[in-house]
Amino acid sequence: MICIGLADGLDAYEGRHITFSIDLASTWWPSEWAVPVGQPFTGDIHVLE
Protein backbone atom coordinates (compact mmCIF):
# COMPACT_ATOMS: atom_id res chain seq x y z
CA MET A 1 0.00 0.00 0.00
CA ILE A 2 1.08 3.54 -0.66
CA CYS A 3 -0.40 6.76 0.73
CA ILE A 4 -1.45 9.10 -2.09
CA GLY A 5 -3.45 11.47 0.11
CA LEU A 6 -0.85 14.19 -0.39
CA ALA A 7 -1.40 14.35 -4.17
CA ASP A 8 -3.37 17.25 -5.62
CA GLY A 9 -6.25 16.85 -8.09
CA LEU A 10 -7.53 13.44 -7.01
CA ASP A 11 -10.97 14.70 -5.98
CA ALA A 12 -12.25 14.09 -9.52
CA TYR A 13 -11.55 10.37 -9.06
CA GLU A 14 -13.36 9.99 -5.71
CA GLY A 15 -15.05 6.57 -5.53
CA ARG A 16 -13.58 5.36 -8.83
CA HIS A 17 -11.06 2.64 -9.53
CA ILE A 18 -7.99 4.20 -11.15
CA THR A 19 -4.64 3.01 -12.43
CA PHE A 20 -1.76 5.32 -11.68
CA SER A 21 2.00 5.52 -11.69
CA ILE A 22 4.29 7.25 -9.23
CA ASP A 23 7.68 8.90 -9.46
CA LEU A 24 10.09 7.03 -7.20
CA ALA A 25 12.19 10.18 -6.80
CA SER A 26 9.16 11.81 -5.11
CA THR A 27 8.31 8.85 -2.86
CA TRP A 28 9.54 8.47 0.71
CA TRP A 29 9.15 6.25 3.75
CA PRO A 30 8.51 7.59 7.26
CA SER A 31 11.65 5.93 8.56
CA GLU A 32 15.35 6.66 8.63
CA TRP A 33 16.15 2.94 8.70
CA ALA A 34 17.91 1.17 5.86
CA VAL A 35 14.91 -1.11 5.40
CA PRO A 36 11.65 0.76 4.60
CA VAL A 37 9.40 0.69 7.66
CA GLY A 38 5.83 1.99 7.55
CA GLN A 39 3.69 3.09 4.64
CA PRO A 40 5.42 5.00 1.82
CA PHE A 41 4.06 8.44 0.83
CA THR A 42 4.00 10.28 -2.49
CA GLY A 43 2.51 13.50 -3.79
CA ASP A 44 3.40 12.87 -7.45
CA ILE A 45 0.62 10.77 -9.03
CA HIS A 46 0.12 10.23 -12.77
CA VAL A 47 -3.37 8.85 -13.55
CA LEU A 48 -3.16 6.51 -16.52
CA GLU A 49 -6.92 5.97 -17.00
Walk me through this protein's architecture.
With 49 residues, this protein is an all-beta fold. The chain is built from no helices and four strands. 0% of the residues lie in helices and 20% in strands. The two termini are 19 Å apart. 2% of the residues are buried.
Q: What's the topology here?
A:
Blueprint: E1 20-22, E2 27-28, E3 41-42, E4 45-47
Antiparallel strand pairs: 1-4, 2-3
Average pLDDT taken over every residue: 82
Share in helix: under 10%
Give helix and strand order, one letter per element, not per position.
Answer: EEEE
Structural class label: mainly beta
Integer-rounded radius of gyration? 12 Å
Counting DSSP E segments of at least 2 residues, the number of strands comes to: 4
Number of helices: 0
Features:
49 residues, mainly beta, two-stranded antiparallel ribbon, 4 strands
Report a brief summary of the structure:
The chain has 49 residues and is mostly beta strands. It has strands at residues 20-22, 27-28, 41-42, 45-47. The mean pLDDT is 82.
